[in-house]
Amino acid sequence: xxxxxxxxxxxxxxxxxxxxxxxxxxxxxxxxxxxxxxxxxxxxxxxxxxxxxxxxxxxxxxxxxxxxxxxxxxxxxxxxxxxxxxxxxxxxxxxxxxxxxxxxxxxxxxxxxxxxxxxxxxxxxxxxxxxxxxxxxxxxxxxxxxxxxxxxxxxxxxxxxxxxxxxxxxxxxxxxxxxxxxxxxxxxxxxxxxxxxxxxxxxxxxxxxxxxxxxxxxxxxxxxxxxxxxxxxxxxxxxxxxxxxxxxxxxxxxxxxxxxxxxxxxxxxxxxxxxxxxxxxxxxxxxxxxxxxxxxxxxxxxxxxxxxxxxxxxxxxxxxxxxxxxxxxxxxxxxxxxxxxxxxxxxxxxxxxxxxxxxxxxxxxxxxxxxxxxxxxxxxxxxxxxxxxxxxxxxxxxxxxxxxxxxxxxxxxxxxxxxxxxxxxxxxxxxxxxxxxxxxxxxxxxxxxxxxxxxxxxxxxxxxxxxxxxxxxxxxxxxxxxxxxxxxxxxxxxxxxxxxxxxxxxxxxxxxxxxxxxxxxxxxxxxxxxxxxxxxxxxxxxxxxxxxxxxxxxxxxxxxxxxxxxxxxxxxxxxxxxxxxxxxxxxxxxxxxxxxxxxxxxxxxxxxxxxxxxxxxxxxxxxxxxxxxxxxxxxxxxxxxxxxxxxxxxxxxxxxxxxxxxxxxxxxxxxxxxxxxxxxxxxxxxxxxxxxxxxxxxxxxxxxxxxxxxxxxxxxxxxxxxxxxxxxxxxxxxxxxxxxxxxxxx
Amino acid sequence: xxxxxxxxxxxxxxxxxxxxxxxxxxxxxxxxxxxxxxxxxxxxxxxxxxxxxxxxxxxxxxxxxxxxxxxxxxxxxxxxxxxxxxxxxxxxxxxxxxxxxxxxxxxxxxxxxxxxxxxxxxxxxxxxxxxxxxxxxxxxxxxxxxxxxxxxxxxxxxxxxxxxxxxxxxxxxx
Amino acid sequence: xxxxxxxxxxxxxxxxxxxxxxxxxxxxxxxxxxxxxxxxxxxxxxxxxxxxxxxxxxxxxxxxxxxxxxxxxxxxxxxxxxxxxxxxxxxxxxxxxxxxxxxxxxxxxxxxxxxxxxxxxxxxxxxxxxxxxxxxxxxxxxxxxxxxxxxxxxxxxxxxxxxxxxxxxxxxxxxxxxxxxxxxxxxxxxxxxxxxxxxxxxxxxxxxxxxxxxxxxxxxxxxxxxxxxxxxxxxxxxxxxxx
Amino acid sequence: xxxxxxxxxxxxxxxxxxxxxxxxxxxxxxxxxxxxxxxxxxxxxxxxxxxxxxxxxxxxxxxxxxxxxxxxxxxxxxxxxxxxxxxxxxxxxxxxxxxxxxxxxxxxxxxxxxxxxxxxxxxxxxxxxxxxxxxxxxxxxxxxxxxxxxxxxxxxxxxxxxxxxxxxxxxxxxxxxxxxxxxxxxxxxxxxxxxxxxxxxxxxxxxxxxxxxxxxxxxxxxxxxxxxxxxxxxxxxxxxxxxxxxxxxxxxxxxxxxxxxxxxxxxxxxxxxxxxxxxxxxxxxxxxxxxxxxxxxxxxxxxxxxxxxxxxxxxxxxxxxxxxxxxxxxxxxxxxxxxxxxxxxxxxxxxxxxxxxxxxxxxxxxxxxxxxxxxxxxxxxxxxxxxxxxxxxxxxxxxxxxxxxxxxxxxxxxxxxxxxxxxxxxxxxxxxxxxxxxxxxxxxxxxxxxxxxxxxxxxxxxxxxxxxxx
Lengths: 746, 174, 243, 470
Hints:
The structure holds four protein chains of four kinds.
Chain A: H1 2-11, H2 16-22, E1 49-54, E2 63-69, E3 72-78, H3 91-94, H4 97-100, E4 110-113, E5 120-123, H5 126-139, E6 146-150, H6 155-168, E7 174-175, H7 178-182, H8 185-196, E8 210-211, E9 218-222, H9 233-245, E10 253-257, H10 263-267, E11 270-272, H11 279-293, H12 313-320, H13 324-336, E12 340-344, H14 354-367, E13 377-380, H15 386-389, H16 397-408, E14 414-418, H17 422-425, H18 432-437, E15 441-444, E16 458-459, E17 470-473, E18 482-486, H19 499-510, H20 512-517, H21 523-531, H22 547-557, E19 559-561, E20 567-568, E21 596-602, H23 615-619, E22 632-635, H24 637-643, E23 649-654, E24 659-666, E25 674-679, E26 719-728
Parallel strand pairs in A: 6-7, 6-14, 9-10, 9-12, 10-11, 14-15, 15-16, 21-25, 22-24
Antiparallel strand pairs in A: 1-2, 2-3, 4-5, 4-16, 8-13, 13-20, 17-18, 18-19, 21-26, 22-25, 23-24, 23-26
Chain B: H1 2-25, H2 43-48, H3 53-56, H4 71-78, H5 86-97, H6 117-122, H7 128-131, H8 148-156, H9 160-166
Chain D: H1 13-16, H2 26-38, H3 42-68, H4 83-94, H5 96-107, H6 117-137, H7 164-197, H8 200-210, H9 217-250, H10 262-288, H11 297-328, H12 331-342, H13 346-362, H14 366-370, H15 372-398, H16 414-437, H17 443-452, E1 453-458, E2 461-466
Antiparallel strand pairs in D: 1-2
């Protein structure tokens, strides 16, 4: 940006003096003042109004308060009354303003003219767009050939879309995105269902387990980056603070098991860099030691001894690289504490033995009777209204794959895409782009021209979350049932339209069964009606006599939650019948040819890449490497030495699937046999701040051959090799490389 | 000859000093002329009709800015009162188009000054203390050059225990 | 005597920040909160790589030890609001000075950009507007109207969110009350997810900040320089202990 | 040298030099000084054009800097001060030689100073002018520079006299005014002389500048008294200026700057570099203006000796500082010393040391001191060394501080270099133009010196004698 204008300066050198003098003029703004035509209630010019809403920067659903002055959103803060984040907010949540005020937002609906290749987008009127949709849908011989692919879709929209698709006779929406993949959300729900689900219970949408971090004395986290992006990082960080300094019994102990020292591991008391894929073995070994030595104060372990029947601790020590003494010590620490908890993290889901590993971790809690106990494992209590209990769950990767298969087979004629960017978020071999080719009409509701939106025939931008309505069930972390409400804090900036309204309008135009299924005049009517399902619930923080009153309290509080903490104690219904098994993790790539494990991790700032168009997040230093604005490759100092590369040397990382180049960060906190790369950069389209910046490491992720169908995306199961390129590239670090390693200056 | 030169130099110096002193004493000389408004709103007529400042600029008591009356408020009276006058007709046109009027600001502060009406009114200051007798102006204009010296004039006159705080730079610059 | 102390304490607070390193996770929420609250521009990749970033608060990360017993210590560093501030006497135009509440004031519109304060500051927490800041429209809409947007050639730094302090003071005065402990919160303190940052008045012995400052864990950064900072750190625990 | 002069053949050569131009008439001397001034060759105009172009380019770079912001120079955090302050210190240092030569040697009645005082004083004035630009150039908002000037204003704002930058400003302005007046006072009789020998615009100029000087005894008396007072008065100023410049650094707690020895160390360094610059300039001007007759080996010899002594003193002070820093073993200083000795600052450090120490050795030889080319080489080397020394102090030290996370590096930019070159070119340009407008050699001082000496025959010996003139 700057460079261009400097060139201009060279041209206009003669008037440089004049330009200088423009700097001298006092900076008095002579802008016209606009009065309100009709003053909104409770709006005082020049005075901040705070609106309670819900953050949509990640799936957690934190409550926010937005400071609005003169109709402009100025700042986002956590809602202190909200049970999830309790007034706190992470970096991403606060950057929500830059979604709203992003200079690269779509300002109106557009239609792609001239096929999908040339990317010629022409503005289109909303009525015209709706006409086109209606006529396409009406023209369909088989309405089941409509599909909806969503990612971070607010729950109310999922509810509406589900009804819409059901009424059409189409399959339910597929909700899949990279963020939830990296945090293993679907797999965590699976885990909870396996252990605690009723045999005839819901197939989908089982509540996620919660871990009481605030009151735990000892936490063993197996790859759960609970302070960064996993589940509800703000809530978990809040609890972490309490765990550290807020407990009567002294400081809690946190041990982190993962190959790379994440920010969470940096805050942990102990980081155990396990061999990737052996996390389950370690949990197994710990359990075996506990059961064998009858550790802890929970009486006899005889009932659970069968779980660890065939376990050899020495074999485990050998396989995982963690010594027997360490295992024993850890087992003692875990068992001796009154309140200990083991947390299976999202990283495990990326391994081929992920489900087994998560089982063994959960078994530790079961063995130590940590279910439903303070500082242990809980299940969230359901919100007492059906509307909010049937709320969305994340689809496993297999459903996304089967959608792609259907698309490829030409079985999908109309595809709606909302708040997910599969072209960027899925590895190339998933074949999403090729599959899109077979779909007659692709409709994106993206606010930005991202990698997927450019393939759409119609882009019908939704409001950003600060302009739109909605509600969202909160992620685990709140100590009570809660629904977080979302409401517009500013008037929509541009000619965008709420996707819920588009769906309702479509339904009305299609008529018949569809219109009957979706009888609401608009989104707000639907929300109002939904909210009043809770009217008369005595446990809430508020109640009202009329639906109107309830709806206004709902908006005032930013949702609904109970007055008192309320969590469910999980009951084990799916106890394994035989010994726990952890099969060796499978990896793609010959260890001789590809000597390193590829450890991807979601960037704290950009998560799965959706933060990349927000300049604050781009400039936000990664806490561990302090890198910004680009992709980097983390190498252990020993590895770097053996490869003959240093900080800022560009290396090529080659996997059986692909390759990328990025600057090296010599990183003391990673196993020598692993390389770590943050996810989030490498956008080809996504606005000026994201484009042509770094590389997308998903291009390295290889498909695990012979993987059983239904397995999650094996994003942690690729091996790579690293080659120097001889080039250098200065990574924008916060840290001074000159001072690196000089901590002991004083 | 050299004496004449000395005299000339002395005269120039005197003129500069005198000019400075004049400006210092009589700030009105630097105050800007009334900006051209989309509607020639007449403050005097409204004041004579007994409309209080705070009736229209109602935020002043509670907010940083005094605020402009919403057009709804204008129309509250002008639906009936003086509806045949030319300026009011223009107003009605705006109202019918539901279009806000683009008023030109009269009293301005540089961006780097934080000013709030509320504490000034809270301290018992009247509007005319700073804005002059707007009730006597047809078209509102800034009566004084509101520079830092002008602010300090008043802040320094406050009781000493308050003045220390009132002349802290951080009070208005942040 | 005690009466005197009390009244003078009421007259002028001594604002201080307590940073509990045991709670700090390094999550950078404070950094972004500060950007949002104080209209801090982003500088872009090239400038950031050259060390011209403008965060008022940064989280410094120091490595200790070697793999696998490696420790990363995370430490938020912002302007320490020194009582004996090295930056203050060197400014030729009083753009930076000590205000009655013990804050290091930085008056942007007085600054002429000698950068002497930046050279004198031992913590290097002052940032300079090397170029005119850019806020591509409509990002301008998010700017906080209570805070000046600085132009090129001006030094800036953490102010303890003076605009929030003043706003709170104004509000309680309008309501005829006194400031309560915790009523003023800089943006970073407000947002800090693990509550590692605590802000308060050291002249009030009962404020949470005062109580924490008396902790046996407390220390101050480069204390040996005698700058007497108003930012008090609480030592963190030993992380990644060997064995 | 004027060995060829038959009238002087009888006198031993070492005395001959003192009996300057004995055989020439005053009018001849006048002409000898005025001729090179009045006759300008093509080479001169080529030089002026080149220098003018460099200055113009530098001004453009300055405009660019002001328009875009200080970021156009290579500064960053924590290296807030770079080449501008380095060059500022350098020019202030250069400015010291003029007073040193002129005032100190005048008080000491060192007669060899006579032909070179004007050149030295002019150097002081112009170097200070160049130095004075930098505090402006380096300001982030140069258009607000006047806030550093104390003037009554309705905002009741005053500059901060606690700040060394204010001391700097006061000291530099005082020194600039003082040295300009000093230069001008000594110029008055020569202006009168030039007035009497020229016509046209020069005549009008010189008439105005001569202030009606007629050369009466009363006028001479007053001039001598004035010069005497100035010589005494300006010495504390000249000591204070570079001390204050050093305090810009020493009053901070930046490691390596925070040093008690900085003031004398800077003053000595300033004298070292200033005298060297003077020697270089004299060699160049002598050739350019063909003043071989006036600027002779004895002057170079004496000047060379002074440079050598200053160099020894500088070495001593440097060593005294370095030793204490080394033994102090303060962490940041230790790191800086390590960088200097074997790190990224090593090239600069060794350049500084060799360029400052080798000339001291070289100048020990009379052959070097009296051979203009060799002297030029040695003294230029000194200034390369001294510039590097300042760069190391300013830029080198700022790269390290108490928090290793905040360490930094620095790369210069074309803008910065252009502006630095601009002041060098500007200095040369002013000097070149000055030498065409003002008699480069103070004629009256030479004549006065001649009056002081005579050869007396005592028996068979020819003995030079000197008279007290006051």
